[in-house]
Amino acid sequence: MRKKIDSYLGFAKRSRNLIMGYNTCLLAMNKKKLKLLIIAGDVSENTVKKLIHSANESNIVYRIYSTCDELSQACGTTGRGVFGITDQNFANVILKEIDEDRSI
C-alpha cells in the first residue's frame, strides 16, 4: 500500500497537482484550491492544530499519515511535512489508499 501512495504522490507532483510546505498549503486552503491535506505524523503539535483548524474552516479533508522523511522522499524533496492535493481525482484515490493502509 505504501508504494501505491508514494506513486500517486509522485504522479500528482509531476502533473502539478501537489503543493508542498506549510505556508503554501495555508494559502491554497484560503483560496479553496486544496482537495486533500496530508500532514506528516511527526510535525509539531502546534502546526497540526493550526492546519486542522484551517482545514475544518475551509471544509477540506485531511489525514495525518507517515513521517516527514518518507513523504518528502516520495515527492522528491527533503524536510517537508505538509502536502496538499489540488485535483479531486488524485485526492479521492490517495484518500482511499491511506484509509485502506490504516485499516490493515
Automatic annotation (TrEMBL):
Record flagged with keyword Endoplasmic reticulum: no
Alphabetical UniProt keywords: Ribonucleoprotein, Ribosomal protein
Annotated GO CC locations: ribosome
Domain Ribosomal protein eL8/eL30/eS12/Gadd45: 4-92
Cited Pfam families: Ribosomal_L7Ae
Protein name: 50S ribosomal protein L7
Keyword field contains Protein biosynthesis: no
